[in-house]
Amino acid sequence: MGDLLLVRHGETEWSVSGQHTSWTDLPLTTHGEEQAKSLAPLLTERTYALALTSPLGRAIRTAELAGLSGAVPEQDLHEWDYGAYEGVTTADIHRSRPDWDLWTDGVPPVLDGHPGESPEQIGARADRVLARVDQALAADTGDVILVAHAHFLRVLTARRLGLPPAEGRLFALATGTVSRLSTEHGRPVVAEWNRRP
Description:
By secondary structure, the protein is an alpha/beta fold. It is built from 8 helices and 6 strands, in the order βαααβαβαααβαββ.
């Protein structure tokens, strides 16, 4: 059976500043593009049964620059909907809500169609993606690769390991990195994390 590779997109202006970024589709910075290109040696010599990206441009561009041809956008790989906290840093949120924690509190909605999401809602999306991953891995024709976003991939990792969605807080994920989830004695394990060339 193959492995599940997770790629966090390259750096953006807001990943540098720490602003929550979900639907605001910022481009990669010059450094982010270089990060994405540098991943190619880690990715292009593998065979993929399935390659999916978030529908957002920063993930699609990372996949392209990393040499992943034919990756298919998947809506469920979209980053956490941060609702009213889109573009806001955690430090700014703590000025009015000092005890706020994304992993337990989720986010408040905004009126323009972004209702925000709870950890459980992200977990449900991650579970749908993992069902598709399992189906592809069961065919035993290669690995599966997902190119997406930090918070979503952290929740997906927690769910893969049998943990509640909020335990994604345990898996810090840097921009422009590859992580690999595998199995050992029939159980899911973290085989590599935050790998860079």
